[in-house]
Amino acid sequence: MPDILVIIASPREGGVGAMIGRWFLDQAGQRPDLRLDVMDLSRTPLPPIQSGNADGPGEEARALAARIAAADGFVVITPEYNHAYPACLKLAVDAVRHEWAAKPVGFVSYGGRSGGLRAVEQLRLVFAELHVMTLRDTVSFHQTPTQFDEKGRLTEPDGANGAAKVMLDQLIWWATTLSQGRAARPYTP
Ligand SMILES: Cc1cc2nc3c(=O)[nH]c(=O)nc-3n(C[C@H](O)[C@H](O)[C@H](O)COP(=O)(O)O)c2cc1C
Q1: Which molecular function term from Gene Ontology is one that the record holds (predicted)?
Q2: pLDDT digits (tens, 9 = 90+) for 62-78
Q3: For 7, 25, 81, 157, which has the most beta carbons within 10 A of its beta carbon?
């Protein structure tokens, strides 16, 4: 059973990201075929970028690397900020290197009219550099607040719930397959 790390990439504690995160964790939590870990970047100390010849990674970088290393796959839940993804996500991505490699990532995005899709397309370029397999199918929320009621529940859940199932099915296939592949033959980026 693959270990999936869900990264909630909003820098705003209690923002829309928290609401989307609750919805997604409810969906993923119902599945018997994965184990979940959750990293909320609004509450995660992020390390400074290492210079390369410093005394090695600091405590925050080691903690982050351990969480990434323990995962077989990832889901990134990201808003769109100025046609891109938030800076806290780039910090987290850049703080770790080989621990990302040969694993899949799925995306849940949200924003205004674009539904965060431009943030996702930029993330595909970034993750390619780290040898991360990005999944074709994503979940996106356009004009997000209009889709949830005052209790944070989706008013018309079928579309998003179905999209989450498609993405999770793909994620589990890739996470399981690449985990077996790494065990059979170490991947050397
Ligand atoms: C600095 C900033 C820039 C934004 N830029 C965009 C954008 O380019 N496209 C878009 O669709 N929404 C944009 N938005 C709207 C956010 O995607 C939307 O408000 C989202 O729900 C914010 O998520 P959060 O509450 O988790 O921060 C922007 C919001 C902020 C704060």
Answers
A1: oxidoreductase activity
A2: 999 999 999 999 999 99
A3: 7
